[in-house]
Amino acid sequence: xxxxxxxxxxxxxLALFAGLTWLGVRLLPKWHPVYxxxxxxxxxxxxxxxxxxxxxxxxxxxxxxxxAGEGVRYASYAAYVWLFGLLFMLVVLLAGYAVRLLxxxxxxxxxxxxxxxxxxxxVPVPGRLTRRQFLQGAVAVVPAVPLAVTAYGVIGGxxxxxxxxxxxxxxxxxxxxxxxxxxxxxxxxxxxFFGMDKLDRVLAMVKQEKPQLLTLTGDxxxxxxxxxxxxxRLTAFHSELSHGIFYCWGNHEYFRxxxxxxxxxxxxxxxxxENRSQAIGNGLYLxxxxxxxxxxxxxxxxxxxxxxAQAVRTIPAEAFxxxxxxxxxxxxxxxxxxxxxxxAGHTHGxxxxxxxVSLLPVQYRYMRGLFRQHGSxxxxxxxxxxxxxxxxxxxxxxxxFTLQRGGS
Length: 408
What we know:
By secondary structure, the protein is an alpha/beta fold. The protein contains 11 helices and 14 strands. Mean pLDDT is 88; it is low at 112-116. Its EC number is 3.1.4.53.
């Protein structure tokens, strides 16, 4: 099953950024006359055309780990900074125009000249910046601020990874599992923006936390040229964990070549949980579910019910179960069945967040972080990587969960 971008999706992207560029070219000269010249107008269009060209070409120039791959990565950084900067810049400009209109509407007419600001004695000082000149300069650089913020979100968001640690109390936890540590990595999207150096770094972060097992909740590899070195690293890391590595399918495996990825995983010590469970020991069971593809919400819900039922079918009632899922809606199934802990991903936390609220147009009920219902916990990872390198207020993460006996 392949789910790639359609021709309609590509045409929509082209039309969207062409429209954003046209609006920018129209609005910038009205914002400040410094943007009124032909060089600015032509440069604006050229930057958009080059950026779109770079991103489309990067889909076929997957040479991660090579010098050419590094060049593609940094060129893609620049392209993303410009294209996302276009969007944020227009938001800022439109907000600025709204403020101007309000100021003009409610301010009273004033007399006098604001062109110069006399020094003591009433004589302007040659070479000194006047208040009006300062304000004009400040207004002129406002459109550059969104580009600076976007550059921070692209470059900083692609390099910063945090460790989030949670201690979760369960009254039903068996004494043998008290203090048990589970690590979660999700949505690495290994490829242009997540190479082997970053994978080595992430695995070192996990090793430092000394978990008993590692869970991978989908979307592992986007560039299949890196599948073999990825599996070599996971195979080597498996011996660092007392109970190994466990994996459930995401949606991007289907975008690439799930048959090839399946073959690589089954040839490794990584345990794939595809709508089934695995006994770990001391009453601990892991259950994993596939991605619930569906043509509509009802079909997807039916798939979730079926996959979940298959996954937990053979688990004893007295067991302590941890569910691994890529799609966060499986938290509903876990909560309804009183599964103590469910781990998911997929959303990337929205990647752009203000005061903890995602600005992503597509919203999920469980977007990011820890949720609790009736003594059960569900966690949605913000992702350890991403296929689109832009994160603001939502850093990539490695998640650690320490099970604790107690609570109510």
